[in-house]
């Protein structure tokens, strides 16, 4: 069975949603082309995706299989249709917040597609045409650093890295060793200082907590304002007040754009370009490949535009299928741009907590 | 209330209306205010600004404090007259209105006295200025241990906000993280301080999410943190932090004449609605505590259940669910104690979503019973037997101990014990806090140090 051309459609074209979904289902669930993982999993789905899943809405029929990606052999995740010589860029893992990490395989054709989209986005947002990039964030098993490497290379720059191991940070905090996490984070800032001081870094890619930490050092803030043209943040939430302060007070001359995504959907998407007075971060989907739904936390039903709910992410491409991956983020559901499948999401963040827990004893 | 009161953060650049806000509700669940919560980045930058700020000269500080006290207690601050402020605090915190009124007046008075009260803590050998002629032969000069002081405030009683005024009087720049339960008082007080001469970068209000709370302390030189046992455990070893932990105030009653002290006992338990750290939570009686407990219970049971804004209200009010949670905690911890009052429950539903917490009196059968350490935010007291053979041990770990006794030898031991922070003698209620008497040592002892200066 040959590949449906719609799955390999030219990078600058957007395939029709239903037609694409149908082709993807045929690909992932035909014995000749599907991955051993999905072909085996299909036996217990209770429906035939090739018959029963024809639209974006139909993707809801799938269970969330993300947890199964903790144990599966990575070979079993590659669709057979790629043949024995699938062009594997690498295997990447989730952060490991909730148990052993989940694994995904990054194949070249998907990377090309994602990079094409990313380059369009960088162009649109006026990122510098040349100069180097500094990725202050997770590399190693995490896709974050890898994607920055490709972005930098596409724009003729070099990616410098300061590696952060998020699992170690989470473990320190979980075990009540906040001072150790603190020391580690300061160590990362120290290392990024050496690079920023000596190299022509034009783009800084990092996480909101590290950006806040960078802002503690006024010499570093001056250096970034003098050298860096754009900051991309991702990997964690940025609350709207922090964003406002960064844009107006800390880095007034630097472009600041968020990215929202996840290892599990094999990518991240830049925030929508809106007039600065709108003061809202919205992420649109990369339809029909990466899509979002915002659902009620209790019922799982889609919320109305303007309401908040929990984010569900979907990845549908030739290289990989992962519908209904429930994230632990809350977001406001936003009407999508014309032609996009699923919702756009805004104001992504956790629930605010003022106190640690209810303490009854005592007068305070 | 048609429109929500806007409680902005008060940053170094002026009020900040944040995008992330917490709705403050009154007892029935009706929203009354929106409190701006600031993120870590805002905290960092504000604390850095405090560090950079100048300190007003001492006489200007004293003048500004006095002016702010008058404004706070009697004026219109941020569009809110004093009476309205008091009503809101009462309706949000459930504290009886008369308690809020006297706390308001108290804060006003203490602001006016703040500079003077810092003098009590200054060692006799120390002077304020290196220019003092005494330094010519060598002298101690009283100096600040740092420049920036942070407070994790409590919301149990507006009066907690009198103490840090002394830090301002001593020339510290001060950051206050308010309690969610009652942010109105620090917001009003800091606004009044700013209208009275303090700069925006000299005293700030930083309402934050729990996750950011520690940043306020980290970026200060010294800090004071209100809380229970957990706060003492967390910060007890940090020399930069002064924990204001449990009060566990007690009364010791020896001899046979307890009837004439009944008023003092009842008032010590129930003043301020029983919400303060200086409220008595355990009474140790030489001889049989039962008749004393019953007499106290009888007096406490006569207190009416009223909404907090009623002039006759004495008892605290909470949202019904919170009241039940406190009641459950109490009943879960009775653990064999004999109920004298409130053994069947303490919640008196007012029918509007709020409930009065009625007094509770229990008897335990030995002085070292663990229940005597339970401190709840309403009038709740544990009576225990005590004999001279039991000694000081059961009376330890106490903010205020009133000892009604003729035994001077015992008083010697009580005064010497480092875990008893104040000893009041005779018919003295535990809640007395005259400004010249230290509350938990003078704050100045923590904020200041002596420095040797010799001029030749």
Overview of this protein structure:
The complex is a heterodimer of chains A (364) and B (456). Chain A has a six-stranded mixed β-sheet, sandwiched between helices. A five-stranded antiparallel β-sheet of chain A has the order 9-13-12-11-10. A two-stranded antiparallel ribbon of chain A has the order 1-2. In chain A, strand 7 (255-262) and strand 8 form a beta hairpin. The longest helix of chain A has 21 residues, at 178-198. Chain A is α/β, with parallel strands linked by helices. Chain A is built from ten helices and 13 strands. Chain B has two domains: 5-245 and 440-453, 3-Layer(aba) Sandwich (Aldehyde Dehydrogenase, Chain A, domain 1), CATH 3.40.605; 249-425, Aldehyde Dehydrogenase, Chain A, domain 2, CATH 3.40.309.10. Chain B contains 13 helices and 25 strands. Chain B has helices spanning 40-52, 58-74, 82-93, 97-118, 165-169, 184-195, 210-218, 229-235, 262-270, 289-301, 320-332, 408-416, 443-447, and strands at 5-7, 9-11, 14-16, 21-25, 31-36, 76-77, 80-81, 126-127, 139-144, 148-152, 173-177, 203-205, 222-226, 241-244, 249-253, 280-286, 317-319, 338-341, 347-349, 354-357, 360-363, 380-386, 398-404, 420-425, 448-453. Chain B has a seven-stranded mixed β-sheet with strand order 18-21-22-16-15-23-24, with helices on both faces. Chain B is globular and about 65 Å long. Classes of the chains: A alpha/beta (364), B alpha/beta (456). At the A-B interface, helix 10 of A face helix 1, helix 7 and helix 11 of B.
């Amino acid at each position: 069975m040959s590949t449906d051309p719609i799955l390999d459609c030219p990078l600058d074209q957007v395939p029709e949603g239903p037609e694409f979904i149908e082709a993807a289902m045929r690909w992932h669930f035909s014995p000749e082309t599907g991955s051993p993982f999905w072909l085996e999993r299909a036996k217990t789905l209770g429906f035939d995706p090739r018959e029963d899943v024809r639209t974006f809405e139909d993707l809801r029929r799938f269970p969330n299989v993300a947890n199964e990606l903790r144990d599966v052999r990575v070979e079993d995740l590659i669709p057979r249709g790629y043949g024995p010589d699938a062009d594997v860029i690498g295997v990447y893992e989730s952060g490991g917040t909730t148990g052993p990490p989940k694994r995904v395989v990054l194949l070249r054709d998907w990377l090309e597609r994602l990079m094409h989209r990313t380059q369009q986005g960088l162009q649109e947002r006026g990122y510098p045409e040349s100069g180097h990039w500094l990725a202050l964030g997770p590399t190693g098993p995490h896709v974050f650093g890898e994607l920055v490497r490709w972005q930098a290379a596409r724009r003729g720059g070099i990616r410098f890295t300061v590696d952060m191991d998020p699992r170690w940070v989470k473990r320190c905090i979980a075990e009540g060793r906040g001072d150790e996490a603190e020391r580690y984070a300061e160590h990362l800032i120290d290392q990024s200082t050496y690079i920023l001081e000596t190299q022509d870094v034009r783009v800084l890619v990092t996480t909101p907590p590290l950006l806040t930490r960078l802002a503690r050092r006024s010499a570093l803030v001056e250096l970034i304002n003098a050298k860096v043209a754009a900051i991309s943040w991702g990997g964690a939430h940025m609350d709207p007040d922090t964003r406002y302060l960064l844009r107006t007070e800390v880095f007034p001359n630097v472009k600041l754009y968020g990215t929202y995504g996840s290892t599990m959907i094999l990518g991240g998407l830049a925030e929508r370009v809106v007039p600065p007075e709108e003061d809202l971060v919205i992420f649109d989907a990369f339809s029909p490949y990466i899509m979002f739904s915002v659902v009620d936390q209790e019922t799982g039903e889609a919320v109305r535009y303007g309401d908040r709910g929990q984010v569900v992410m979907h990845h549908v491409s030739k290289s990989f299928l992962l519908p209904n991956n429930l994230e632990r983020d809350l977001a406001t559901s936003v009407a999508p741009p014309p032609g996009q499948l699923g919702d756009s999401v805004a104001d992504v963040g956790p629930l605010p907590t003022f106190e640690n827990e209810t303490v009854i004893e005592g007068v305070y | 209330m048609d429109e929500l009161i806007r409680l902005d953060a008060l940053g170094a650049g002026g009020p900040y209306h944040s995008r992330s806000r917490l709705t403050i509700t009154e007892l029935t669940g009706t929203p009354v205010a929106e409190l701006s919560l600031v993120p870590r980045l805002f905290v960092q930058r504000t604390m850095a600004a405090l560090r950079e700020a100048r300190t007003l000269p001492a006489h200007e500080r004293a003048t500004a404090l006095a002016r702010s006290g008058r404004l706070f207690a009697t004026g219109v601050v941020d569009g809110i007259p004093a009476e309205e402020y008091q009503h809101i605090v009462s309706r949000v915190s459930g504290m009886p209105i008369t308690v809020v009124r006297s706390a308001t007046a108290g804060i006003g008075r203490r602001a006016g006295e703040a500079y003077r009260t810092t003098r009590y803590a200054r060692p006799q050998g120390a002077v304020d200025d290196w220019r003092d002629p005494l330094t010519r032969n060598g002298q101690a000069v009283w100096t600040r241990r740092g420049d920036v002081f942070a407070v994790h405030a409590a919301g149990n009683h507006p009066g907690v906000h009198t103490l840090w005024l002394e830090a301002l009087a001593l020339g510290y720049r001060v950051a206050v993280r308010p309690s969610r339960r009652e942010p109105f008082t620090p917001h009003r007080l800091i606004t009044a301080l700013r209208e009275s001469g303090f700069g925006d970068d000299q005293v700030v209000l930083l309402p934050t999410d729990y996750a950011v709370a520690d940043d306020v302390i980290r970026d200060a030189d010294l800090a004071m943190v209100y809380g229970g046992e957990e706060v003492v455990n967390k910060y007890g070893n940090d020399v930069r932090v002064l924990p204001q932990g449990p009060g566990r105030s007690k009364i010791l009653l020896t001899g046979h004449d307890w009837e004439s002290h009944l008023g003092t006992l009842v008032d010590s338990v129930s003043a301020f609605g029983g919400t303060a750290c200086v409220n008595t939570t355990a009474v140790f009686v030489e001889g049989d505590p039962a008749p004393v407990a019953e007499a106290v219970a009888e007096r406490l049971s006569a207190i009416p259940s009223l909404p907090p804004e009623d002039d006759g209200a004495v008892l605290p009010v909470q949202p019904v669910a919170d009241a039940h949670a406190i009641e459950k905690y109490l009943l879960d911890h009775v653990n064999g104690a004999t109920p004298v009052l409130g053994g069947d429950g303490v919640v008196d539903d007012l029918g509007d979503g709020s409930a009065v917490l009625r007094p509770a009196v229990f008897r335990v059968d030995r002085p070292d019973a663990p229940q005597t350490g339970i401190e709840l935010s309403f009038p709740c007291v544990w009576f225990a037997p005590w004999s001279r053979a039991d000694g000081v041990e059961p009376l330890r770990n106490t903010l205020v101990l009133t000892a009604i006794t003729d035994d001077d030898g015992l008083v010697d031991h009580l005064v010497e014990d480092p875990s008893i922070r104040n000893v009041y003698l005779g018919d003295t209620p535990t809640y007395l806090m005259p400004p010249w008497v230290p509350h938990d040592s003078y704050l100045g002892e923590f904020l200041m140090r002596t420095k040797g200066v010799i001029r030749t």
